[in-house]
């Protein structure tokens, strides 16, 4: 299951980079290295990814003797990051719901997952999840 979720994350990010560079999946490639971390520092279950994504795409190199050319892609701005987070969240939520692992709800602009029928811990945390702790804006 983690491999499928990682695939969703990677495809979303790679597609964004390739399109931002003005190419298609047929004409350009990108790459990433990912570590799946399963536990937090207190040995609590905290599954998450550490991903290093290339800051560009490779074009050419499809013919036997052609050399690939790296084309740098500008880092995403805040709006693009928000769109990427939303897309990854939506796609991952739908996948987990199809697998019967989590229920997906769309109660606010911040999407929330509920494990099982209802989990009060998730409802309590999700309201301020993207703003920081206790509803306060995150420091910049």
Describe the structure.
With 140 residues, this protein is an alpha+beta fold. It has a domain at 2-75. Helix content is 34%, strand content 25%. It contains three helices and seven strands; from the N terminus they run αβββββαββα. The protein has helices spanning 2-20, 78-98, 120-126, and strands at 28-29, 32-39, 45-53, 56-59, 69-72, 102-105, 112-115. The strands form three sheets. Strands 1-4-5 form a three-stranded antiparallel beta sheet. It has a two-stranded antiparallel ribbon with strand order 2-3. The longest helix is centred in the middle third of the chain and has 21 residues, at 78-98. It is elongated. The two termini are 34 Å apart. 6% of the residues are buried.
Topology:
Layout: H1 2-20, E1 28-29, E2 32-39, E3 45-53, E4 56-59, E5 69-72, H2 78-98, E6 102-105, E7 112-115, H3 120-126
Antiparallel strand pairs: 1-4, 2-3, 4-5, 6-7
Helix pairs in contact: 1-2
Number of helices: 3
Euclidean distance between termini CA atoms: 34 Å
Radius of gyration: 18 Å
Structural class: alpha+beta
Q: Widest sheet: strand order?
A: 1-4-5
Q: How can the largest sheet be summarized?
A: 3 strands, antiparallel
Given the C-alpha coordinates, what overall shape results?
elongated
* Parts with pLDDT < 50 across at least 5 consecutive residues: 113-140
Report strand %. Answer: 25-35%
One letter per element, helices H and strands E, the order comes to: HEEEEEHEEH
Number of DSSP E strands: 7
Binned, the helix content reads: 25-40%
Average pLDDT, rounded to a whole number, is 77
Structure, briefly:
The protein is 34% helix and 25% strand. It has 140 residues and is of the alpha+beta class.
């Amino acid at each position: 299951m983690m491999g499928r979720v990682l695939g969703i994350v990677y495809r979303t990010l790679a597609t964004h980079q390739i399109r931002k560079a003005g190419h298609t999946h047929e004409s350009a490639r990108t790459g990433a290295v990912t570590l799946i971390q399963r536990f937090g520092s207190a040995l609590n279950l905290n599954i998450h990814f550490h991903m290093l994504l290339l800051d560009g795409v490779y074009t050419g190199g499809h013919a036997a003797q052609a050399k690939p050319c790296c084309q740098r892609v500008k880092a995403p701005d805040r709006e693009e990051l928000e769109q990427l987070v939303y897309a990854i969240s939506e796609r991952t939520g739908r996948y987990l719901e199809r697998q019967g692992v989590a229920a997906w709800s769309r109660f606010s602009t911040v999407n929330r997952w509920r494990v099982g029928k209802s989990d009060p811990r998730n409802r309590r945390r999700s309201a301020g999840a993207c703003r920081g702790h206790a509803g306060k804006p995150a420091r910049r």
